[in-house]
Amino acid sequence: MAKENQAALTIQEEFAKKIKAENRREKIIKWAPVLVLLALIVVFTIARGSAFASVSNLVAILNQWAIPLIVALGLTFVIMLGGIDLSIDGTVGMAGSIASVLVMNTLNDNNFGIFGIIIAILCSVVVGFFVGLFHVKLKIPSFMVSFAFMNICTGIAYLSYSGTPATVSDPVLKALPKVSFLGIPFITWVALVMLLLCIYIQEYTPFGRYIYAVGTDETIPRSVGINVDHVKIKVFTLAGFLFGVAGVVGLIRLGQGQAGIGKDLMFPAQAAVVIGGTSLSGGKGGVLNTVVGTLIMTVLINGLTMMGVNPNIKTGIQGIIILVAVILTTKRGATVISK
Amino acid sequence: MEKKLLFSAKNITKSFYGTQALKGVDLDIYEGEVVGLIGENGAGKSTLLKIIIGVQPQTSGEMTMHGRPFAPADPMAANKEGIGMVFQEQSLIVNLSVGQNLFFGHEKDFMRMGFVNWKKMYEESKKVLEEVNCGYINPKKKVIDLNFATRQMVEIAKVVNLTKSGHDDQKCLILLDEPTSVLNEEEVQNLFKEVRKLTAKGHAVVFVSHRLDEVLEISDRIYVYKDGENAGNMDIKDATEEKLYAAMVGRETTTEYYHLADQKPAGKEVVLETKDLGLSGVFKHCNIKLHKGEILGICGVVGSGKEEICSVICGDEKPSSGELYVNGKKVDYSSPANALHDGILMIPKERHAEGIVRNLSVADNMALSNATLLSEHGVVSKKKVNDQADEWIERLRIKTSGREAELISLSGGNQQKVVFARALASQADIIILNHPTRGVDVGAKEEIYALTREVVAQGKSVILLGDTLDECIGMSNRVIVMKDGLITGEFQADAGEKPSQVSIVSLMM
Amino acid sequence: MEKTNTVSKATSWKKVLLKNYSILVVVVMIVIFTILEPNFLNSMNIVNLLSDSAPLMIMAAGMTPILILGSIDLSLGSMCSVANVMMLAIMLSMKDTAMNPFLIFAIALLATMAAGICSGIVLGLIHVKLKVPSFIASLAFMSVWDSAALMITSSPVKLPKALKMTADWYKIQIGPVGLPLIMSVLVIVVYHFIITRRAFGRSIFAIGGNERAARIAGIKVDLYKVIVFAVNGLCAALGAMFLLVKAKSSAPTVGESFTLMVISAVVAGGTPNTGGSGSLLKTIIGVFIISIIKNGMNMVGVNVYWQKVVYGAIILLAVAITTDRSSRSRVVK
Q1: Which of A160, B504, C131, C263 places its Cα 20 to 30 Å from the Cα of B461?
Q2: Distance CA A117, CA A114 (A)
């Protein structure tokens, strides 16, 4: 009997060891993004020296960082739910295009100023709301709904200026890209404000807690009377808002409204969120992870461009990054079903 | 000291789709006591707990709490009345902090100017944790960084806090469903210490566990349930392991029910053998021999490792140690398809999750495992598939509108028969029956027993995980008992010389 | 008893309608477009419409079983782009040899097909063995193939004069129907036969319906899934070949719009993305729905940008109609 007990203990010990190993792995993965970022900075500094590690390049990086950050912030909340939003390219392009034809521009006589911008962002908010609504109420997977909306919105973007992109002629909007405060460009400030907003939502509102809970296990929030469907719809709507802001910022930066503003934003955003440590299965990660993730992507692209790498290869690298990050964080086992 | 009645349930019944899970059970709980609740798997313990906490309503019967009638619509309503439950599968959000978990869903109470006042919440958390004597837990720590024992205490603290919302002096009732299954010896003792401190304050605790020694140690009173009925209610002074075993086990095997006349002695030839088989953290040192024409029963409580042994044998999971021999040949399966190639097939326990394809027809479901056998020149013969379906629908008396009916339109018992037919039609020689009669009515059960006998008479071999102990003993030629991942006993179970249930239960718990 | 009968009658009537709604859609659309533009039904346009639908048809053939599995491949269009530029690049590299042009064509085609199959196998293995959801794995592949296509050539390339004759067969007509479409439909019919009549194919429905049950029942789940992805890669390569021959030139972004159109066609045909049900024959109708919309909108003079909006709406509508919502416990993410 004593011998059996000892053996029984070892089974429990094995179990405990397994859990411990898992926790250790989690901890390593938790800090990996920061290490990757530091490594990238070191590598590029060694390779390109002062060209990379200069104030002017730092400002450039901050400039390049702004739009991917805003977009990735929106996506972060969606992925924390365990869902995904593929509509990014469309919604961002749509918001930028709609804004361009509503403010003072070369294409028509509209001059709604700030209201034009608000309307454009509202359009994007509405799209986000519908993505969430269709996903939740019709029980269609979020990737499918948002995939459809990506195309719908791209179409709407083209239609809003029907072929000839509108160039912004509003003096204020034209001046904004050159404005900087404390050495940081205006559009980066917008991104930072959005970042603060997201940190507030995630850390200081009940809603932020609910997002984690829904992503972890929907039955837990349901059992304390939280309307899970509403949480989901709100998250997609919030994402829509951020995509809209990104579209307007893209317009300001480019000076011209076109569907292309949103093009190729989705991959860096997906890659940034996932590599930052927000798991696709939901309930894990957060806004700060995404900050690190977007920095990794921005520094990487900036550095690769400096090294003279073929620009065509960049999207491919992003794809591989997504794949590796997902592979590292997916749960496996006989009972796991992936579709 | 005069004891005050806190909670009472009278004559609770519950039926699911025609099967009666509870046939009228009672439960009385007084302030400041720990009540142990024991019984075999399926005796109705979990069902009763779910009714008390408001996850599902009873079919009939009355409950009172604090002397008032009590009929919770959902767990929140139960919480308000002072009843909280720590579920077997933990309900903490691992990436949030302890404090955030304690007040999850109640953040609005801490809002100040649009911000959640975390400082205040953590101060409150500290108080809540101290209430259950867990002041040592830092409420700012994330749950994922805590070990299971500490998580369990957080869970208890959360439940205690929920049940007290509003009135501080309200006595509450905490339901603990298998709280010790993930804890080691020392952690169990700690848990018990905390439970005693809780009851010292007048709260009551219901303790459900498979481990009889723990139940005997912590409880003041013990209820025994059997087949959804009361089988005993004894004070701890009168309770001994022997008495509890005797109360738990059901009626003894009846000869006709299990077709014992048809039970033939097993052959000598070993068709399957495991040598020191193990799965890390689940079971170990498993040595089993299965003979031709034998029904080998494996008994054990949930978590004893018996399910996982089946998963390993049928190729669903890879063992982490040991060897598996089939017909004398060493095998190493990477999927159930490999195992089927050698003639091993399992009827899974979870019918909906693993047994049936709901949107396929009855005929297609039966042909899942043997589509190639029904083919001519690589083309699956529709006629053969249909003939096979018709044959089995008749033989097993499956109630269906026809072989083309979608499987989901059948009742649970008939779905199970289809899964059974699939296994029998597959020409597998070693069939693992994992709870073959779960959710099946009595008539169908008997048919399945008869069929199993028939299959074995044809020279096939069966590993049986019975739905009840009685079934396992009644059907098997030999019974293996498992506890905590180890084989603790083996009994010969020839017809007429069946081992007693008590002797097996005492090795299971 | 009577009551259940009437209920089942009502539901079966609804089921018949749901199962065949796609044919209805085709008829309705033909009527609408004919009213809006009488020339829609003239023989020239019919020939055009039919020949246009061949690449879409063959790619939809590969995608349908993937949706029956409950998976998806978002990299299809990008794989098609790679195959398209790759095939022409191979042909160009051999054009100065003394080889028979048709032999060059055949070699290039075989190499492209092999590449397509390999790509499908790799995607399938990553999805199956590493348990990465297919939409995210294929999303990553999409960006990789987009890059790869641009690396091979960043701008459209014309088929050289010396090899032009290898593309002439694309114009062969049998009645109003072009050879490529006949080939595509043939592929679909053969694949349909395999899917419905071979043990392998029937397993695909079981896997899509309940993967765990299929695995426990001894079906080679992983192998079959990879095969389906491999066939999809092959179909992408064949579609790329059609596009190359049709345009007599290659372009690194030629497949971009096809991912959307193919998925639209498959779901519009009535194969839900929830898995476990669907049909390749229905996909034929789905492809015609998309082709008619595309052609009809061009005829009527609808802004080309509306088409994206319409395809997106079709996906939403078709998925909303065909999604199986009977299991309430299922968590949709």
Answers
A1: B504
A2: 5
> Does residue B269 share a domain with residue B153?
no
CB contact (8 A) between residue B485 and residue A8:
yes
- SS3 category, B334: coil
Kindly give the confidence (pLDDT) of every residue in chain A, 339 residues in length, as a single tens digit, with 9 standing for 90 and above: 334 444 445 777 777 788 788 878 878 878 888 988 999 899 888 888 888 888 888 888 888 899 999 999 999 999 999 888 989 999 999 999 999 988 888 888 888 888 889 999 999 999 999 999 999 988 888 888 998 999 899 999 988 888 788 888 888 888 888 888 888 888 999 999 999 999 999 988 989 989 999 988 888 888 788 889 999 999 999 999 999 999 999 999 888 888 888 888 888 898 899 888 888 888 888 999 999 999 999 999 888 888 888 888 888 888 888 888 888 877 776 666 677
Q: In chain A, how many domains are there? A: 1
Asked if residue B207 and residue B71 are part of one domain, the reply reads yes
User: How, if at all, do strands A166-167 and A256-257 pair?
Assistant: antiparallel
Looking at B248, B263, B280, the residue that finishes a domain is B248
Instruction: Answer whether B484 touches A (CB < 8 Å).
Output: yes
DSSP E strands in chain A: the ranges are: 166-167, 180-181, 184-185, 256-257
- How do the domains of chain C map onto residue ranges? 53-255
Query: In the listed set B209, B226, B248, which residue is the last one of a domain according to the structure?
Result: B248
- The answer on B244 and B213 residing in a single domain is yes
Domain limits at A292? 33-329
The model's pTM is 0.86
In a domain, A6, yes or no: no
User: Does the distance separating the beta carbons of A15 and B282 come in below 8 Å?
Assistant: yes
Based on the fold, state whether residues B241 and B301 are members of the same structural domain. no
List the single residue in B348, B359, B367 with the smallest CB-CB distance to C277.
B359
CB contact under 8 A, B380 and C214: no
Cα–Cα distance for residue pair B502/B505, rounded to 1 Å: 5
Residue C154 near chain A (CB below 8 Å): yes
Residues B91 and B132 in one domain: yes
The residue range of the domain holding B61 is: 5-248
Beta strand B478-483 pairing with B295-299: parallel
Q: Which three-class secondary structure state does DSSP give residue B17?
A: coil
Long-range contact pairs involving A56-63 (C-beta distance under 8 Å, separation at least 24):
A57/A302, A57/A306, A59/A180, A59/A183, A59/A184, A59/A185, A60/A302, A61/A298, A61/A299, A61/A302, A62/A184, A62/A185, A62/A188, A63/A185, A63/A187, A63/A188, A63/A253
C-alpha pair distances (Å), C71 with each of A246, C127, C135, C205, C274? 31, 10, 7, 12, 8
Q: Report residue A83 as tokens.
A: 């869902």
**Count of structural domains, chain B:** 2
Q: Which residues contact B175 (CB under 8 A, 6 or more apart)?
A: B49, B52, B53, B83, B84, B85, B86, B205, B206, B208
Could you tell me which residues are beta bridge partners of residue B379?
B376
Whether C231 and C138 have beta carbons less than 8 Å apart is answered as no
Run of H or E residues at A3 = helix A2-48
